[in-house]
Amino acid sequence: MAAPSAPRPPRPRKEPQPLVIPRSAAEEQRLRLERLMRNPEKTVPIPEKLNEWAPRPPPEFVRDVMGSSAGAGSGEFHVYRHLRRREYQRQDFMDAMAEKQRLDEEFQKKLERNKMIAEEQTAKRRRKRQKLKEKKLQAKKNKLEQKKQEKEPDQPQERVSSEDDEEDDSKEEEEKEDDAEEPSFVMGRG
Predict the structure, then answer these.
(1) Do 110 and 189 touch, CB atoms closer than 8 A?
(2) Is the pTM of this model over 0.70?
């Protein structure tokens, strides 16, 4: 028999944590974070993304071809059943992948359509703003011309208008630079 060993010292007991049932997703997340932060030195396992299941490809050469003729043994039925199940699984997988690809293509087309609609609306609004600005500038220009004509009726008209055109061109270039706008996306249409 083995010699009696010295009794081990008792382990320090941890205080039992009260059982808390989370009532919402936020509370559950808070509890998980608290549990992680109790021991910051402990490594946290981060699960890797699981690869999608794919069936085995069909064999390129089938060695034991079974026919439906008489004389097949009773064990052949189970082999046939497994082959049939595997083939059905493969066909279902291919159908599911085709459906997923079709849905992805539809989604991409919908995004493109929404993007085009948003760009058209943005361009339309930009044209409208530009028209208003041009109207305001034209009204301002006409007002200035009227004031100058009232003040100096002797001065030739061509000289005044050429100076105003130069001022207006510089102002328009500055406003075009400020007017850059990203198109807004419209979701849920189409």
Answers:
(1) no
(2) no
